[in-house]
Design brief:
Blueprint: H1 10-61, E1 68-72, E2 75-80, H2 81-84, H3 92-96, H4 111-114, E3 132-134, E4 142-144, E5 148-151, H5 163-167, E6 202-206, E7 238-239, E8 290-295, E9 300-304, H6 309-314
Parallel strand pairs: 5-7
Antiparallel strand pairs: 1-2, 3-4, 5-6, 6-8, 8-9
Amino acid sequence: MSRPRRGFTLVELLVVIAIIGILIALLLPAVQAAREAARRSQCTNNLKQIGLATHNYADALGRFPEGATGCGTGGWHGESAFLLILPYFEQGTVLSTYNFNYRIYDTRVNLTVAGMQFPTFLCPSDDAGGRQLYFLNDPTNTRGRSNYAVSFGSSTYLPNGTWSDLVSCVSRAGKNLRTDGAFCPEYGHMFADFLDGTSQTALASEILAGKVDGIGCTSSKPCDHRGAWAWGDMGYAIYTHRDTPNTSVGDAMDPRECVPSPGMPCDASSAPVGRRELEHVAARSMHAGGVNLAFVDGHVGFYTNIVDLATWRAISTIASGEVTGTP
């Protein structure tokens, strides 16, 4: 006599599939959370590396790098602090090919360096890796995307001066180009300048790379310039503490350089064309609830989106006398 075959009934099969689906639904958030924790840890390490390179620069030259610098052929150049510290995280060979006598986007020189990407400048939680900004609507003139920026203090790009004061490169006597933060144009602070304490003063934080890279950008159809590490301009490699992390307040940039996207609002009315001294860009990240923040002494803390604005601004100033706590 033949034995009856045994197997799953349709109901049993559906029950098993349902159980597997429930287990996957329960495990997936945990896996995603673990991955984000690893990405956030890598981001923290990147900021520590930036802090260490900045310290090595200061040890070698007796002062911190300028937040934006460079007058030469063609006028104001505006190289970023990140460009200046390249030799201090083993990229000296790269910087040796850069010609400070010419602008970053000069077609004769500097295009290769400005278009590079470095893992230290990329947060794995964002999608900046492998993307470039096509500058001046030119497919051969690119800027490597990045996710970090140095602090220009509690206000705007030039709270005490004007853009023309900076870019003229002449007749600067009596003009105030300083900020109240760790970085400012054309001047590198010394450790003695940090009267509020190096452990109480912000050095650098996160920004999100602009989502519109491509060719065909015009004043009516701009590209998003945020997150281009080589250029010492607001939103490229500079941010401020005027607003709290991941704020809904729009980043104030030249309206030809800012394109709104989820989590990255723009406010063209605050910084009209020609008034870059009024620009301000907030710290932003893809981490849930806040941003990583590096301090001048080298430690990194995490600040939530609901941090008190007065506290957030206080930790960005170098000599305002506030007493704050740091993570």
